[in-house]
C-alpha cells in the first residue's frame, strides 16, 4: 500500500512538473514576444515584419508537439502588454492590428465570392449569346448579295 502511494506521488509529480515548466516557458515566450513586437513597432517597423519576428520567436520557444497558432500568439502578446502596462505603455496603440476585425474580413470575402459568381454568370451568358448568334448566322446563306446587281 505504501509503495503504491509512493509510486502514485512520483507519477503525479512527473506529470505536474513538466506542465508547469511548459506553462512558465510559454509565459516567458509570450512576454519576450511582446517585447520584440513592441520594440520593433516603436522603432518604426511595419506591422507585418514586427508580427513575423514576434510570432516566429514565440513558435520557436514553445516547442513540443502542438504549435502555437497566430491567434494564440496574438493573445499572448496582448496579455503581456496589458499585464505590464507600465513597461509597454507605448505599445497599446499597436494591439488593434493583432486582432483584425473578423467581421470585416468575412464581409470582404463574401463580396469577393459574389463578384466571382457574377463574373461566371456573365461568362455563361456571353457563351449562350454566341451560340445563339452562330445558330442564327447559320440559317442565312453564305453567298453575298450585291445590291447593285439587277
* Number of structurally distinct domains: 2
The rounded distance between the terminal residues' Cα atoms is 123 Å
Number of helices: 4
Helix content: over 70%
Assign an overall shape.
Answer: elongated
Low-confidence stretches: 19-27
Please report the total strand number as a whole number: 0
* Percentage of residues in DSSP E strands: under 5%
**Helix and strand sequence:** HHHH
Secondary structure layout plus pairing:
Layout: H1 2-42, H2 47-62, H3 70-83, H4 102-139
Short description:
The protein is mainly α and 150 residues long.
3D architecture notes:
The chain folds into two domains: 27-100, no CATH class; 101-136. The model is unreliable at 19-27 (pLDDT under 50). It starts with a helix and ends in an 11-residue tail after the last helix. It is elongated. By secondary structure, the chain is mostly helical. It has helices spanning 2-42, 47-62, 70-83, 102-139. The protein is built from four helices and no strands.
Amino acid at each position: 500500500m505504501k509503495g503504491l502511494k509512493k509510486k502514485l506521488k512520483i507519477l503525479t509529480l512527473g506529470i505536474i512538473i513538466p506542465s508547469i515548466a511548459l506553462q512558465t516557458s510559454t509565459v516567458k515566450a509570450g512576454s519576450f514576444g511582446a517585447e520584440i513586437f513592441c520594440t520593433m513597432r516603436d522603432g518604426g517597423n511595419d506591422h507585418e515584419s514586427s508580427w513575423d519576428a514576434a510570432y516566429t520567436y514565440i513558435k520557436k520557444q514553445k516547442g513540443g508537439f502542438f504549435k502555437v497558432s497566430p491567434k494564440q500568439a496574438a493573445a499572448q502578446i496582448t496579455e503581456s502588454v496589458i499585464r505590464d502596462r507600465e513597461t509597454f505603455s507605448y505599445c497599446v496603440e499597436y494591439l488593434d492590428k493583432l486582432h483584425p476585425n473578423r467581421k470585416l474580413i468575412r464581409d470582404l470575402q463574401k463580396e469577393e465570392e459574389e463578384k466571382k459568381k457574377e463574373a461566371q454568370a456573365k461568362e455563361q451568358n456571353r457563351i449562350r449569346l454566341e451560340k445563339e448568334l452562330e445558330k442564327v448566322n447559320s440559317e442565312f446563306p453564305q453567298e453575298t448579295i450585291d445590291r447593285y446587281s439587277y
